[in-house]
Amino acid sequence: MKILVTGGAGFIGGNFVQYMVNEYPEDMIINLDNLTYAGNLETLKSVEDKPNYKFIKGDIADREFIFDLFEKERPDVVINFAAESHVDRSIEDPEIFVRTNVLGTTTLLDASKTYGVKRYHQVSTDEVYGDLPLDRPDLFFTEETPLHTSSPYSSSKAAADLFVQAYHRTYGLPTTISRCSNNYGPYQFPEKLIPLMISRALADESLPVYGNGANVRDWLHVLDHCKAIDLIIRKGKEGEVYNVGGHNERTNLEVVKTILKALGKPESLITYVEDRKGHDQRYAIDPAKLENELGWEPEYNFDTGIAQTIDWYLNNRDWWENILSGDYQNYFQKMYVDK
Ligand code: NAD
Ligand code: DAU
């Protein structure tokens, strides 16, 4: 099989590409990525010389480029990870989120339809369901939960999901969608909560917690997400949506305190800052469909997963220190210092 993975130089796509190249030497994995601020080829060092791996630089929203690529490569399967993924950036500047996440997706769908791909998989998010109240721990997102987005990011992802479903119903394109909860693990860009807090704590810098830190996220190790996607593209039913999550709810404050404890740093580093606009309260996934129909179950528990992740950041300082010395510094200055 020839599998076109978009966004394979990012956090989840990068972990997925490494997993697939090693797991399926008989398949060809093509990584298409535009190398935005979040794309980093250093993540792919361990597979870059493998015969079943190829990198192509390009923009999923560039129609001519994408059609040329499909004409030349004729992929059997397309898995779309490529996206603008950070909620705070979408609040500052929504336009690029529409271009990449919506137009990029429809461009890939059109090319997939034209060239008859056997499976188009869209990597989506639990954020399309909006949020749940903190005082109703009995509620979870199922695949039937209505789309009810809060941020420009989640709105762009929901729009993309609706186009995927339209291409299935209208044109019969064989699609699947996965909607996953918050991922953690190696190679996550240090603007996201966990790597941001690890890198700042190591430098004895303040840890900016939005609002009162009581918001809840449902954390899943990135490799459990990768294995779920692998299962869905092989065994998932066309036209279906699958929720992915491991019942691992934590408040942001619990996560930050876990990191501080593991690093032996004081809680006095925690600084409460202005809340995120429209901040979603709680995400919580019900993964019963994926578990019951496809037999998926997560392998990591959060306590060992987070400990291993912290170790990874300690042992791979070059990877994230190179990022922090570049453009991200200007972004951090604008978001947290100049405000
Ligand atoms: P990321 O920001 O780390 O990586 C995104 C990648 O997409 C980068 O390599 C970037 O260069 C590439 N990209 C951006 N615009 C592009 C374009 N126009 N053309 C080609 N490539 C482009 O994101 P991530 O956290 O790895 O998320 C990957 C996907 O998973 C996204 O679709 C996101 O919505 C979804 N998702 C993320 C999480 C999470 O917790 N991070 C959870 C659920 C779903
Ligand atoms: O749920 C899946 C989503 O998870 C993905 O679709 C998104 O791509 C991914 O970025 C993530 O979104 P979140 O907004 O939940 O992740 P983030 O790491 O930005 O924030 C996690 C929580 O931590 C959130 O409640 C906001 C809070 N936070 C975040 C940052 C960056 C802070 O308190 N301080 C911070 O500095």
UniProtKB/TrEMBL annotation:
Keywords, sorted A to Z: Lyase, NAD
Cofactor dependence: NAD(+)
Domain NAD(P)-binding: 4-309
Enzyme Commission code: 4.2.1.46
Domain of life: Bacteria
Single biological process term from Gene Ontology: nucleotide-sugar metabolic process
Catalytic activity: dTDP-alpha-D-glucose = dTDP-4-dehydro-6-deoxy-alpha-D-glucose + H2O
GO molecular function: dTDP-glucose 4,6-dehydratase activity
Family: Belongs to the NAD(P)-dependent epimerase/dehydratase family. dTDP-glucose dehydratase subfamily.
Protein name per its UniProtKB record: dTDP-glucose 4,6-dehydratase
Lineage of producing organism: Bacteria, Bacillati, Bacillota, Erysipelotrichia, Erysipelotrichales
